[in-house]
From TrEMBL:
<dbReference type="InterPro" id="IPR036291">
    <property type="entry name" value="NAD(P)-bd_dom_sf"/>
</dbReference>
<dbReference type="GO" id="GO:0016491">
    <property type="term" value="F:oxidoreductase activity"/>
</dbReference>
<keyword id="KW-0560">Oxidoreductase</keyword>
<comment type="similarity">
    <text>Belongs to the short-chain dehydrogenases/reductases (SDR) family.</text>
</comment>
<protein>
    <submittedName>
        <fullName>Oxidoreductase</fullName>
    </submittedName>
</protein>
<dbReference type="GO" id="GO:0016020">
    <property type="term" value="C:membrane"/>
</dbReference>
<dbReference type="InterPro" id="IPR020904">
    <property type="entry name" value="Sc_DH/Rdtase_CS"/>
</dbReference>
<dbReference type="InterPro" id="IPR002347">
    <property type="entry name" value="SDR_fam"/>
</dbReference>
<dbReference type="Pfam" id="PF00106">
    <property type="entry name" value="adh_short"/>
</dbReference>
Length: 262
């Protein structure tokens, strides 16, 4: 069953490039109106125009730094003031840092935790009541294969994504009696600007997937009669994630450390 989102509105954070832009393209093709949120206004406007022209949908753009406390609630209030109700929320915004923690900039890692964790929770809480009331749509939180084991050399990033996975799976159980589909999407290394921001390809464990392939995984999960609470994109990534969960903790820790730091 291929789900249609005609007549609904999807809010996508981190929508100016990479997985966010691909999510926007694919949901637009399925008929959803869009709210695109990111910091880069010019990219948002370019994408919005392209999607309006291609699909005849409504696209609202908001330039926001979601790492600021309260930004998620600001987005909700601004949209409510325009009469826009959200049916689907895709929390995609996030970034990574790398290197030993002792060498990382405290201000940067504070921003990483704020965006990857605090903002995701705040935005989810802000929009969850209206999504549950709507009786349709989805909540997708983008985690990572880094969520399945500690990641030396990317300790903060791995921990934030472990939080996202745990939080989303728990929320899926809490809302299981509703019609809202809740999914934690766990991609591995993906061909996006992620590694440009990170400043290194060292963390690109395994073969890089395209953004399109990752979104295919998410949409297939949403199209199932019963959406799983989490899904890993890519066969090899699923094998590695499963192995990390089954191995003794100290062994999976050592393997992850070698993979990222070598």
């Amino acid at each position: 069953m291929i789900m249609s989102y005609t007549g609904t509105t999807a809010l996508i954070t981190g929508a100016s490039s990479g997985l966010g832009a691909e999510f926007a393209t694919r949901f637009a093709a399925r008929g959803a109106n869009l709210v695109l949120v990111a910091r880069r206004t010019d990219r948002l406007e370019d994408l919005a125009k392209k999607l309006r022209d291609a699909h005849g949908i409504s696209v609202t753009t908001l330039s926001k730094d979601l790492s600021r406390p309260g930004a998620g609630a600001e987005v909700r209030d601004e949209l409510a003031g325009r009469g826009i109700r959200i049916h689907t929320l895709i929390n995609n915004a996030g970034f990574a840092t790398s290197g030993p923690l002792v060498e990382e900039d405290p201000a940067v890692i504070a921003s990483e935790i704020s965006l990857n964790v605090a903002s995701l929770v705040e935005t989810t809480r802000a929009f969850l009541p209206e999504m549950l009331a709507a009786g349709k749509g989805a909540l997708i939180n983008v985690a990572s294969t880094a969520a399945f084991q500690p990641v030396p050399g990317m300790a903060v990033y791995g921990a934030t994504k472990a939080f996202v996975l745990s939080f989303t799976e728990a929320l899926a159980h809490e809302t299981r009696e509703s019609s809202l589909r809740v999914l934690a999407l766990c991609p591995g290394a993906t061909r996006t600007e992620f590694f440009d921001v990170l400043g290194s390809q060292a963390a690109a464990v395994g073969r890089l997937q395209s953004a399109s392939a990752v979104i295919d995984t998410a949409l297939r999960a949403l199209d199932r009669r019963t959406t799983p609470v989490s899904v890993v994109s890519g066969f090899i990534n699923r094998m590695l994630a499963g192995m990390a969960q089954r191995l003794p903790r100290h062994i999976s820790l050592a393997i992850a450390g070698r993979a990222v730091q070598d």
